[in-house]
Amino acid sequence: MIFATILMVSCDYFGKDIEKKVYLDGIITNKFFDDKNHGSATFTIKTKNSTLLLMSTLYPNSWEYAEIGDSIIKEKGELYLTIKKKNNDSKMFPYFQ
After folding, report:
1. Could you state, in chain order, the average pLDDT of each consecutive group of 10 residues for the chain (97 residues)?
2. Which residues on adjacent β-strands are paired with residue 53?
3. Strands of 40-47's sheet, edge to edge?
């Protein structure tokens, strides 16, 4: 039991540490349930240099808010991302705790 608790705390800590190093600035080009990843709700994001996948479960409630064509931004060092709509409305979503 103690080992499991330490493991969970360590994974949470290292997950946050890794996530703080991520920078993201792109457009959501697709929303889908990734069968290769246990049916996880996933965004396809087109950035200046590449296309990548982001599990929306890392940022709770982002799936419901986001639409194809929305901008998605995550600054390096932060534990939240911002989704901006075409009409300039935006909302921040914290990294899961």
Report:
1. 33 56 92 92 94 91 96 92 95 88
2. 44
3. 51-55, 40-47, 24-34, 71-74, 80-84, 90-94
Question: What CATH number is given to the structural domain containing 37?
Answer: 2.40.50
How many structural domains is the chain composed of? Answer: 1
Spatial CB neighbours of 46, under 8 Å, sequence gap ≥ 6: 26, 27, 29
DSSP state of 2: H
Integer CA distances (angstroms), 65 to 23, 61, 69, 90, in order: 21, 7, 12, 10
Instruction: Please tell me the distance from the alpha carbon of residue 97 to that of residue 79, in angstroms, as a whole number.
Output: 10
Which residues form the domain of 43?
A: 2-94
